């Protein structure tokens, strides 16, 4: 979660993805950035899985990483999820744990204005 590449992937997500169209354009035109961003989402999905399975205490993880999770998911990651759903021919739901924990983290850490909270 704290490697330079993971941080870069989350920064790309926050700074460059503001719509489904942004995610599509990045996938088509900036594949390295897209793959870096996807790696960051995959790690957040794994964190969500580990919390769900009880390998990591959810309260502790959300206390430590929830603000980051909320920023990655809210208004950015949601667009990537939608883009993947629209373009995945296999019919699977991508990164279900990223989605589920992103919603919890967003409710906990981002007030309705979208600015970081407590």
Textual characterization of the structure:
There is one protein chain. The protein is built from 5 helices and no strands. The radius of gyration is 14 Å and the shape is globular. Helix content is 76%, strand content 0%. By secondary structure, the chain is an all-alpha fold. The two termini are 21 Å apart. The longest helix is centred in the middle third of the chain and has 30 residues, at 58-87. The protein has one domain (4-109). Helix 1 crosses helix 3 (31-53) and helix 2 crosses helix 3.
Q: Whole-number average pLDDT? A: 87
Structural class: mainly alpha
N-to-C SSE series? HHHHH
As a percent range, the share of strand residues is under 5%
Major sheet description = none
Low-pLDDT sequence parts: none
Which oligomerization state do the chains in this entry correspond to?
single chain
The number of helical segments is 5
N-C termini distance = 21 Å
Helix content range: over 70%
Dominant shape? globular
Domain count: 1
Radius of gyration: 14 Å
Give the total of beta strands. Answer: 0
């Amino acid at each position: 979660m704290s490697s330079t590449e993971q941080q870069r992937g989350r920064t790309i997500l926050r700074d460059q993805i503001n719509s489904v169209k942004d995610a599509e354009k990045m996938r088509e035109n900036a594949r390295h950035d897209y793959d870096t961003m996807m790696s960051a989402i995959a790690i957040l999905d794994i964190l969500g899985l580990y919390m769900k399975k009880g390998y990591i205490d959810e309260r502790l993880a959300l206390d430590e990483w929830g603000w980051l999770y909320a920023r990655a998911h809210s208004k950015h990651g949601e667009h990537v999820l939608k883009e993947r759903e629209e373009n995945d021919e296999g019919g699977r739901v991508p990164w279900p744990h990223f989605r589920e924990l992103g919603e919890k983290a967003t409710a906990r850490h981002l007030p309705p204005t979208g600015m970081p909270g407590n």
